[in-house]
Design goal:
single chain, Rossmann fold, 8-stranded mixed beta sheet, two-stranded antiparallel ribbon, 10 strands
């Protein structure tokens, strides 16, 4: 993981290199539509307020749980006793990015949603709230964290969420065998080069023109930046969007020339 100072330098560079977040100067109709209809769109869903209230409850929960995280390099420590509050402080995605994922699902209306890295279930609920008729399959490697997440779904009333507990090396291939094509996949479970590339290659096998692969923390470390650069150069990838904290990947065959965008968000 890069130091905080290093990340600040990289973020300043991102702001300098990024295209205007309002769409000015962006000549791709597809990306312009993404900026206008997703990045700059206001989300009007009363269910999101309830999710944020529950986030506050988790941030005040002092209950101790035994955390064992299978994904080294992630934001959670390996096997130790921690409070729910401690886990929430380091593992929960900021509202801004949970809301972005919600808006992506609302606009593109995928038939399948996969989340790799449930954490405490807050971002999962944002995904599920975008379309009650679409099932969200979310994968979590730490049993105690998965239990807390399941309680989150029950408390907030999201019946369209299925949580799958276990190692991604086992649960991802099983999931991919169960679907015909990939909808939206959000990868936030292991911040190392080799696992990230392994997940990408597996997901790519079920991706089509309508699929969106979303990778978290693409500038979090040297390994993640290496993975992001290789993903961008993959022959099947036609379009990527770098929002600094997350990266979006498209394999739109209708787009003949490969394009990479850095958009301010």
């Amino acid at each position: 993981m890069y130091s905080s100072f290093h990340l600040i330098i990289k973020y300043v560079k991102y702001l300098w290199m990024s295209s205007n977040g309002k769409g000015h100067g962006v000549h791709s109709p597809f990306v312009y539509s993404f900026i206008k209809e997703v990045l700059n769109k206001q989300a009007a869903n009363h269910k999101l307020d309830a999710i944020e209230l529950y986030r506050k409850e988790l941030l005040q929960n002092s209950e101790k749980v035994n955390v064992w995280d299978r994904g080294a390099g992630s934001r959670q420590s390996a096997e130790n006793m921690r409070s729910v509050q401690q886990i929430a402080k380091v593992a929960l995605k900021p509202r801004k990015y949970s809301l972005l994922l919600h808006k992506i699902v609302s606009f593109y209306k995928p038939t399948e949603i996969l989340e790799m890295g449930t954490s405490l279930g807050i971002t999962t609920c944002y995904l599920a709230a975008a379309n009650a008729n679409t099932k969200v399959v979310t994968m979590e490697g730490a049993p105690s964290v998965a239990t807390i997440a399941q309680n989150t779904f029950s408390k907030l009333g999201y019946a369209n969420v299925e949580i799958v507990e276990g190692d991604f090396d086992e649960t991802l291939p099983s999931y991919l065998k169960s679907i015909d094509q990939l909808g939206i996949a959000y990868v936030d479970g292991n911040h190392r080069y080799e696992p990230t590339m392994n997940y990408f290659k597996q997901l790519l096998e079920k991706a089509n023109d309508h699929s969106i692969l979303i990778f978290d923390d693409i500038h979090w470390s040297e390994e993640m930046e290496k993975a992001w650069e290789e993903i961008k150069q993959n022959g099947h990838v036609t379009l990527t969007i770098d929002l600094f904290f997350i990266g979006l990947v498209f394999v739109r065959q209708a787009q003949k020339e490969k394009e990479h965008f850095i958009i301010r968000y």
